[in-house]
Amino acid sequence: MRLGRAGLVALTLALSLTATACGGGSDSAKSGDNPKGLEKTNLNIGLVPVPDSAAAVIADQKGFFKEEGLTVKFTPIPVSGAATPLMQNGSMDFALLNYVSTFMTQGQGAVKFKFVSDAYQGVPKGFALLAKKDSKIQTAKDLKGKKVAVPAPQSITHLLAQSAAQADGIGKDDFEAVKVGLPEMIGQLDKGTVDAIAAVEPFITEAQKKIGARIVADLVSGPTADFPVAGWGGLASFVDKNPKTVAAFQRALAKALKVAQDRQEVVKVIPSYTTIKADTVSIIALGTYPTTLEPARLQRVADMLDQFGYLKNKLDVQQMMAPQPK
């Protein structure tokens, strides 16, 4: 994402995840086909094939979009940032947007986004720092002067690793962040190219199984407990122009997010749109799926980005929140 999950996602891009009928191109012109009076009934949704996206797939499979008068097409994207040019040229309407990368883009002033729904929240050991089993690294404090693999600089994983280092008494830049794709991290750690890895599930579980890697720091704990990861959103201009369509999309997702409170429902759907196998998804640390979009929670992310120098100016996320349906 800047989820830091491009390696996992790249394996999935060949999937064509299409709902009932055609894509998000033309609007429905006939009132008989659009009894709810939506501004647009055909939507193209950018889907990052990771657990974060589960609610949208649930909404599709259970017919919640159809109940709201929507026909959706899912277009797999490697990271949330890949949705921006597609939204700008009008070929994509909504997407799974990682909060860290989206807030950074918003802060640059070039593009304005609005979130319509929450999607995913971190849980303990869903993001973690790992070292080899015989490594002298025991805590985040031991990372000083070491090389740490991160999926991308200034990604959510990098930010969480810096937070853990600072919380353990060293500077946020006291370790060297080395860009390594998630699928390659285990091999690089095993060979000693890096001293530790900042990883996400399912790669945490895989590293433990394959090379006996140890978790030396849980990256979603203490100051980063319940850390917001991603939400569903679009360009502010599209959200403002299509309030009835937005509300229909929100209602469908709200139904799906309630279903996603049952872990088994999530476990069942994830293998259908990702490369994570059923036997793996049943044991990994899965995040939670918040049922409400709360600006105060998301402001934590923006404030941390400001604290760690990812933003030039403070960001008020309230301005990025779409009205919630009544």
Automatic annotation (TrEMBL):
Residues 42-268 form the Solute-binding protein family 3/N-terminal domain. InterPro entries: Solute-binding_3/MltF_N, SsuA/THI5. One of its GO terms (cellular component) is periplasmic space. Pfam families: NMT1. Keywords: Signal. SMART domains: PBPb. Transmembrane segments: none annotated. It is found in: Periplasm. It comes from the Bacteria. Residues 1-21 form the signal peptide. SUPFAM superfamilies: Periplasmic binding protein-like II. Belongs to the bacterial solute-binding protein SsuA/TauA family. This is ABC transporter substrate-binding protein. It comes from Bailinhaonella thermotolerans.
